[in-house]
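>> received
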Amino acid sequence: MYTEDDLRRAVASGAISAEAADALRASVRASTEAPATDEEHFRLINSFNDIFVTIAAILLLVAMAGIGQAFTPRLDGPPPFSGLLIAAAAWGMAEYFTRVRRMALPSIVLLLAFVGGVFEMLLGFVVLSLNANFDGHQVLAGTLISGSALLTAVAAWFHWRRFMVPITVAAGSGALAVTAIALVITALGPQSIDSPESIIIPLVFVAGLVIFGFAMRWDISDLGRQTRRSDVAFWLHLLAAPMIAHPLFHWLGVTGGENIGMGAAVGVLVVYVALGLVALAIDRRALLVSALAYVLAALTFLFDRFGAVELNVALTALVIGSALLTLSAFWTPIRRMVVHTLPDDLQGRLPTTAALPSGLTAN
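>> returned
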């Protein structure tokens, strides 16, 4: 299996000509009968060796966590030395499996382990320095936690400069979101907040919108989705989607599960359709996936309310499964209709919806 990165490196090295690479891309597009943008490609597994290396890497990281735990004083918080050893081991393995071998799945796992290890280390030292006494040092604790998240984002930036793993930008953005939310909570005063959820949920929603906008900037820079920038945008959308969807459905009152009502159930369906239209316009399916659990709960409630008690789960799965499969099968023509209803200047900022080659049927 050859990726766009492989093709670009082959052209750069002179192994094949740029015309031959374009001809290969055209041949692949013809065989799939859909524009390359609509396929939403991203690298995950090149071969079973990716899985083999990932399992071995996880075992080594677990070992590092256990060794670090042995050197950590007993405290109510993350063990800092475990985080230090995990981050160091993840970076070391990335030097070979990411930088030399360019293995997709191990690179993703090692990046997440590195970022998580750095944050665990920094947060562990914060807890250690305060002797787990947050009650008397809430402002200081909030500031230190914010600083830990910010330093984690800086570490992610260094990792990006060294290895250029697409998910790194999303990890760094998530760390910056934690930094901002922690700073706001600290500025408001944790002791003066009666309901932290009422503050955190709106902040998560705003952070999700910011990350979504950042993802769109990466998308706009590669409308043909032929470079690493498209992969970066994919992971950013995957991060932003639940941060946007969860607050919306929380405000509709469906996150409590049993407290859902008729109005909330209908509201979930309306919001899901709206998210679906946005997903079609930007050609990203992350919004649909992140909101799937909520719409399943809403439909189950509706079928139960209208008397289909014994079949409510089966009917919900049938309706949603059929709808998603139909949408997948006809994604290209449906998306073309949605995009063509938008203003021309906005269409120019969205991934291409060019007509398929003559003789082919959109699917």
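>> DSSP finds 16 helices and no strands in the chain.
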